[in-house]
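Re: the request from the purification team.
They wanted to know what the chain is likely to look like in 3D before they choose a buffer screen. I agreed to run a prediction and write the result into the notebook, where they can find it.
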Amino acid sequence: MKINFRGIFAGFVLTTLSSVGFAESDLLVGKWKTIDDRTGYSRADVEIRKKPDGTYEGIIVETRNIPGAEKMVICSNCPGNLKNKPFIGLPFIWGFKQDAKNPREFNQGHVLDPIGGKVYKGKARLSANGKRLTLRGYVGVSVIGRSVTWVKY
């Protein structure tokens, strides 16, 4: 019986490369600690998931209060069907698509400010090591907006 080592090696290389590519595309998926850009405190933990249509959404899984402030539990300022929903389970980023030219960038998303209740256009960029996410919400063009950085658990 003759063993085809070239075929086995080629199959191994293809399997390895395809799994590396798959892992690279899902660096956004997971649990993130949000950091409030105005106070420096972590306000919530968010779980980002990839939906079957290839877009990403983030759901609030835990909230924290800022020292000296009451913990908010209901999205009383949220628009439409999100109004008066609990923060836990609230989808507040959605529609993000991975950029084909730069897999660490995600565009065409929407960001809900759960405190103010406004929805903004959004884009995001992963750091080189995949441990930090810079999320930008903006109105019209991205120069008119605000950026926050999240840390991956």
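For the purification team: The helical segments are 5-25.
Please add any questions underneath this entry.
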